[in-house]
Write a structure and sequence with these properties.
Layout lengths: L5 E3 L22 E12 L3 E12 L2 H21 L7 E12 L8 E14 L5 H11 L4 E7 L3 H26 L4 E13 L7 E2 H7 L15 E13 L1
Helix pairs in contact: 1-2, 2-4
């Protein structure tokens, strides 16, 4: 009868170390415990444009009317680029009084109306014209552009497959080196992560002053790829 052998090995792929906690596993005799990282990288399929509409006036009604006019300008920009206004989402809407904090009675100086808009685009060629026209309309103080992947679940599955292939390959190599044969998978745990890119807002009014002097900031550049990483812990039996 073969002697009971217990192998425990944790492999970290170079350059892909993930700060995370993995479940503790008690390796059983005649088994091998391995851990490996995998990844899947692909081009984004969706552009996310976020901007706010803000207006301020002496009365709440006047501020609201200003905001309504700005919102209509946004709708005109969208229609001019072949996009229905209903494709954009409104996140919140608020009316806030602006106080004179130097005055003990905290006198109301004006009212500010604010709302934020999120627009998802599949046609990246429209990003430049839309951001530029919004800047020229002067309806927003800032704009944010970010690229995402809508079908993130499929990307995560491919990252897991890559991590599992690495884990099994390592376990198989160790088994052969010890004169054993790798058996079936008896346990596995999976963690997946999407790289987080912090969107950098740019000032819309500053863009408006430069609109005729230079092309859009995104012109001719390639969107950054979306990278999904996965970590797999696996226990295989040994024959």
């Amino acid at each position: 009868m073969k002697p009971a052998v217990c192998f425990v090995i944790t492999l970290l792929v170079a350059g892909m170390c993930l700060a995370q906690e993995h479940p503790s596993v008690t390796a059983q005799p005649n088994s091998v415990y391995v851990g490996a990282d995998g990844k899947f990288e692909t081009a984004p399929d969706t552009a996310l444009i976020q901007f706010n509409i803000s207006a301020q006036d002496e009365t709440a009604q006047a501020a609201y009317q200003r905001a309504s006019k700005a919102a209509e300008q946004v709708r005109e920009v969208l229609r001019a680029n072949g996009i229905e206004p209903k494709a954009a989402n409104i996140g919140f809407f608020s009316i806030q009084p602006m106080y004179d904090w130097k005055d003990r009675k905290q006198k109301v100086l004006a009212y500010r109306v604010t709302t934020n808009v999120t627009l998802k685009l599949k046609e990246f060629s429209k990003i430049g014209p839309i951001t530029q026209q919004l800047a020229e309309a002067n309806v927003s103080e800032s704009q944010t552009l970010n690229y995402t992947l809508e079908n993130i679940d499929e990307a995560k599955n491919k990252a897991v497959e890559d991590a599992y292939r690495r884990a099994r390959s390592s376990a198989d190599s160790l088994a052969r080196a010890s004169g054993r044969t790798l058996g079936d998978l008896s346990y596995a745990s999976v963690d997946t992560f999407e790289n987080q890119r912090v969107p950098v807002p740019h000032m819309a009014r500053a863009m408006a002053s430069m609109a005729n002097a230079a092309p859009a900031p995104t012109e001719e550049f390639t969107p950054q790829n979306v990278t999904v990483t996965a970590h797999v812990n696996a226990v295989f039996t040994l024959k």
